[in-house]
Design goal:
The protein has 422 residues and is an alpha/beta fold. The protein has 3 domains: 155 residues, GTP1/OBG domain (Spo0b-associated Gtp-binding Protein, Chain: A), CATH 2.70.210; 168 residues, Rossmann fold (3-Layer(aba) Sandwich), CATH 3.40.50.300; 71 residues, GMP Synthetase, Chain A, domain 3 (2-Layer Sandwich), CATH 3.30.300.350. It has 10 helices and 18 strands. The strands form 4 sheets. The chain has a 6-stranded mixed β-sheet, sandwiched between helices. A 5-stranded mixed β-sheet has the order 3-1-8-5-6, with no helix packed on it. It has a 4-stranded mixed β-sheet with strand order 15-16-17-18. Strand 5 and strand 6 form a beta hairpin. The longest helix has 15 residues. It is elongated and about 100 Å long. The relative contact order is 0.12. About 4% of the residues have low confidence.
Length: 422
């Protein structure tokens, strides 16, 4: 099954929590704080794999998560870093933000790309010792890893795209000029997926050609197979427009030529402006008048024209060289610029919301506060002071007052409940 679009959810690993610990050693009194830092969470990394040609694997598995970092340990030992998760995709895969459609990365080179970064590990209590606070009983929690939905969109990387109506001979042509073995039969839509083939002109000269499945009138609006596969033409440097010059199926080659170009323009104006050479196939069953009339029609529009017969091999030996010479005049295969702008995080990622559950009960929804509480000893005065400063600095106290919280009301944060004191 050929799959060229998939939506998946990725989650980088959370940073491990810093820990509260104190040095314990025989004959050493009042050992200082030695809680280690949490390890950084693993990142999500995408790399190209030239052995893959479809996104089919992502049709069945849609959630990917990297390993979280380990919590710190005593004796100033930092937690182990979470392992990165490497995801392999076909060369030519675009990674887009599912919400905005902006391009995050174009996996076209050999370089791995980090798409979601792992969270930073929290600091252990060793970092909070001061001359006046010699026994810190709190530590910082790890930061969550980046998490979001992405769209994977495969745009095949080929120098040349063979386009044209169904049954004009594109599959036969690519099977003759390359080692590709597409299905060939005398009916429409024989080819159901794009077929890539490497065409060797001589020992050190070659190019990649793609047989794009039958584009028909209305393809840019979803008719036939063209709507699904027009995206695979977008990277091509050169289009080889194959036309049945004989009109063997009762079609007008001029009309077919104009319809295909119209569909390219409707789908993408830059696509319609790509250089083209026009190949009139089935010239063995066309008369000289048909060939000459179509040749003049095409050349008047500024296109080069070549008459061939893939079935009888007429002029087929020259075609790869003609295409290769044209490619030498053109820029490299297109790559896509990154357009994604990562949203600015809230200050210190300290977002929160407050809900009044009852007359004297307020609930604060803030994941970061829960993490701080989990890393604190609320029975300890200094630890509680640190937590209260976080409430004040982040604006939680002021927001509670605005919501109508009074002295003695209950404030719930996660599983913890506190009495509100002004």
């Amino acid at each position: 099954m050929f799959v060229d679009v998939a939506k998946i959810h990725i989650k980088a690993g959370n940073g491990g929590n810093g820990v509260v610990a104190f040095h314990r050693e025989k004959y050493v009194a009042a050992g200082g704080p030695d809680g280690g830092d949490g390890g950084r969470g693993g990142s999500i990394i995408f790399v190209k794999d030239d052995n893959l040609s479809t996104l089919m694997d992502f049709k069945y598995k849609r959630k990917y998560a990297a390993q979280s970092g380990e919590d710190g340990r005593g004796s100033n030992q930092s937690g182990k870093k979470g392992e990165d998760l490497t995801i392999r995709v076909p060369r030519g895969t675009l990674i887009k933000d599912a919400e905005t459609g902006a391009i995050i990365a174009d996996i076209s080179t050999d370089e791995p790309v980090i798409i979601a970064k792992g969270g930073k590990g929290g600091l252990g209590n060793q970092h909070f010792a001061t001359p006046t606070r010699q026994v810190p009983t709190f530590a910082k929690p790890g930061i969550p890893g980046e998490e979001f939905d992405i769209i994977l969109e495969l745009k095949l990387i080929a120098d040349v795209g063979l386009i044209g109506f169904p049954n004009v001979g594109k599959s036969t042509i690519i099977s003759v000029i390359s080692a590709a073995k597409p299905k060939i039969a005398n009916y429409h839509f024989t080819t159901l997926t794009p077929v890539l083939g490497v065409v060797r002109v001589d020992e050190e000269a070659s190019f990649v050609a793609a047989d794009i499945p039958g584009i028909i009138e209305g393809a840019s609006d979803g008719a036939g197979l063209g709507h699904a596969f027009l995206r695979h033409v977008e990277r091509c440097r050169l289009l080889v427009h194959v036309v049945d010059i004989s009109g063997s199926e009762g079609r007008d080659p001029k009309e077919d030529f104009e319809l295909i170009n119209s569909e390219l323009k409707n789908f993408s104006v830059p696509l319609s402006l790509l250089p083209q050479i026009v190949v009139g196939n089935k010239s063995d069953i066309a008369n000289e008048e048909q060939i000459q009339e179509f040749k003049e029609f095409v050349e008047k529009q500024g296109y080069a024209f070549y008459a061939i017969s893939a079935a009888t091999m007429q002029n087929m030996g020259k075609l790869p060289g003609i295409i290769y010479e044209e490619l030498q005049k053109l820029p490299p295969v297109k790559t896509y610029e990154v357009s994604y702008v990562k949203p600015e995080p809230n200050k210190d990622t300290r977002a929160f919301s407050i809900t009044r559950e009852a007359e004297d009960l307020f609930e604060v929804d803030a994941e970061w506060l829960v993490r701080i509480l989990n890393g604190s000893n609320i029975e300890d005065y200094e630890s509680l002071q640190y937590f209260q400063r976080q409430l004040m600095d982040s604006g939680v106290i002021d927001a509670l007052k605005e919501k109508g919280a009074d002295e003695g009301d209950t404030i719930r944060i996660g599983e913890y409940e506190f009495e509100f004191i002004l």
